[in-house]
Amino acid sequence: MPTGGERDIEPPRVVASDPPNFSTNFNGKSISLTFSEFVSLKGIQQQLLISPPLDKKPEFRLRGRTLQIRFDEALKPETTYNMYFGDAIVDLTEGNPLTDFSFVFSTGPLLDSMSISGNMRYAFDLKPPEEAFVLLYMIDNDTIELDSLPYLVKPYYVARVDVEGDFRFNNLRNQQFKIFGLTDRNSNFIYDMAGEAIAFLDSLVTPAYFSPLADSVLLADSFTMSDTTQLPTDTISVADTIFVADTISVPDTIAAADSVYIDTVLLDSLRFEMEQERRLEKAYYNLRLFNEVDSTQRLLRAELAKAGLLQFSFRFPAKAVSVEPLQVVPDTLGLLKQYSKQADTLYWYFRQDVLDSLSVVVQFDTLINDTLSLSLKPRQSVGLSRREQRDEAEKPSFLNFTTNTKNRRLEVERDLIFSFDYPVVHMHLRDSTRFTTSEDTTYNSISFVAKDSIGLLYRLQYKFEPEGTYGIYIPDSSFYGLNGSWNDTIDFNIRVPALSDYGNLFVELTIPQDETFIIQLLNSQGSVLREQMISSSGPLRFTNLQAGKYGLKAIKDSNRNGRWDTGDYLKGIQPERVFVFQKEIEVRANWDFEEDWEIAGGN
């Protein structure tokens, strides 16, 4: 069979338009774009960005190879419009997109020619957003305060960030703007929905002139330049010798310059490029996205998590919240209370079969004043017969536990911790307990120390040595839980690796004076393994690391509360700065690794 030729991989091209791209004095109602082949539109309503935005979406019609765009509203006078199509225009047969196509026209005699560019990332992890926009607002509004703009009105210009978080505005007016970033979940370009992330700058941004000569940015009022485009390509002015004098040392500087600078670069253009590089930073803006936090304390959930455990979950740390039984509870209930590590969850452990239900009052300031009636009876298993339910009820319930070992491996310089699923209210270690080392076996020598206030965590009192192998035997009924359960026989071995199985990381850290940072060691998945608070420059030690890849992250702890804090737009508070060490660190066993890290200051 004939193959039909090679597969088409070329995107469609615009071969004609009415009016031409970059036209002025446009006063029509429609635009026509003619392509090199038949095309289709893919997600045009989602991908098309028109700056300044229109109240009504244009109407699109495909006729042959021509796309007709008809406007359903009057366009603003003396205004430059930029229609960015993204990847919405694709060829009909293979779906090859015409990438990043823009059509620009002006309803006045001039095209705006200013630009703004930059990058936007999430403040906490410095990752670019998957879908986000950058919004520009004009500051000529006398009725709405600048701080209220993103809540009430649509922006004047809109740009979409790319996969790296980069953005660019072209064909802007030569004036200052208020700039915002937004993850616009409902596609209305207004900051009005829970879960939308916002970014802002404290000051106005100044657009810049984009020079086609050097493909870079220069402030529009900062240069003058003569027209040199009519000079022959082999012409070199006398002034050119200034730029070649320090690189050539031959009498005929013009001839030498001809051999060095093909097609010649004139003195004015070289100065122009140097000036553009010097001022590039003034035309580039970095935005940090963050999700604002509703600071109102709320009770999110109160439930019987399992038999003998009530759980109260709050939005924020809740040690200031009062949670108390409404009636006097009997001592036989054995009520024990404990907060989670973040203090945003309160656990109540109790003995089963003492009460069927419990009324609880939850109070906090004037925000929470709830009375709850909670069942203390777990739900019956669904789908079981009466006999199966009886057998399940009569089945012995063991007091379960976990340890901080992985595959029976206890990391070097760690204590062995037992974590029980219910508080231990009684411990009776009998003579048959056994502790085995590589050298001998001892009986009745095991002892534990509680690590919390209600008996969920216990530390075995022994200093484990590297390269050691240990055996632990504890008979059943040695630990008794609050819920009436007891442990099954405990019999397992653990091993402690040699010090040579680990590597060490030493970081010479330099931070700004009088500032505090949280330095985090991350694993390859980005999880925090270790954390240190640092208030001065100096060495950091991360010892006994397993072989693998690690990262370093620094949080500028501006309020010194030991955690990262998000921003607050109306209060003008930016999220706390985050810095990431740019190099991935690969630690190998029995090696020491040294790194230098200088963290810059700034807001």
Indicate the topology.
Elements: E1 14-18, E2 30-35, E3 39-41, H1 44-47, E4 49-51, E5 59-63, E6 66-70, E7 80-84, E8 89-91, E9 102-106, E10 114-122, E11 133-138, H2 149-152, E12 157-160, E13 166-172, E14 177-182, E15 198-200, E16 208-211, E17 216-218, H3 241-244, H4 253-260, H5 267-278, E18 284-289, E19 299-306, E20 309-314, E21 322-325, E22 336-339, E23 345-349, E24 357-364, E25 368-375, H6 386-394, E26 401-403, E27 417-420, E28 424-427, E29 434-436, E30 441-443, E31 448-450, E32 457-460, E33 469-474, E34 479-481, E35 490-495, E36 502-510, E37 517-522, E38 528-534, E39 538-546, E40 548-556, E41 578-580, E42 585-587, E43 592-598
Parallel strand pairs: 10-18, 36-43
Antiparallel strand pairs: 1-2, 2-6, 3-8, 4-7, 5-6, 7-9, 10-13, 10-16, 11-12, 11-14, 14-15, 16-17, 19-20, 20-23, 21-24, 22-23, 24-25, 26-27, 27-32, 28-34, 29-30, 29-33, 31-32, 33-35, 36-39, 37-38, 37-40, 40-41, 40-42
Please describe what this structure looks like.
A hairpin with a 6-residue loop joins strand 31 and strand 32. 7% of the residues lie in helices and 37% in strands. It is built from 6 helices and 43 strands. By secondary structure, it is mainly β. The longest helix has 12 residues. Strands 10, 13, 16, 17 and 18 form a 5-stranded mixed sheet that branches. It starts with 13 loop residues before the first strand and ends in a 5-residue tail after the last strand.
